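Let us practice reading a record.
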Amino acid sequence: MSRQDLDHLNVLAILHYVLAGLSALFSLLPLLYVVLGFAILAQGGPGAQVGLFFVIVFGIIAAYFVLSAILSLVGGIYLHRRKGRTFCFIAAAISCVHVPLGTVLGIFTILVLSRESVKELFAGRGRYHDPEDEDHPPPYDDRDRPGWRDDRDDWRGDWRRDEPGHYGRDSDHDH
């Protein structure tokens, strides 16, 4: 596992989000033809078969684009979370149908997901431990930051306990 793998997965996830947006946008074009088909059907007459053809065929195309957008969006989320490697693999394979951007994205996603280091990263549920961090202490302690407070301290401060109407937890008054 390397930071390069993490960077590649993050970039691929963002590109899957972009592909999802483009697929959702392109689903609007066939929907225009579906609306046109319904308008033809509403008029009746000899063009009703053409209207039915428009509704069925372009409805299927629009549904495909919407489902592809959802699949790509979920694939991007899973890539960010480093889980569902098989799902991401399938989403990448299906995105190859969207020529040319989806094809390039799908191929690169499949190549990255095929690396042994990425397989280990997905198997470890996305936890990444950089071995270089063990040799070097952090540059500063958290307590050196301005406004740092210990998690064990009460964040409200003791002054609220003196106010009338305070119903906070006190060790003396807990039941």
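A brief commentary: The longest helix spans residues 48-81.
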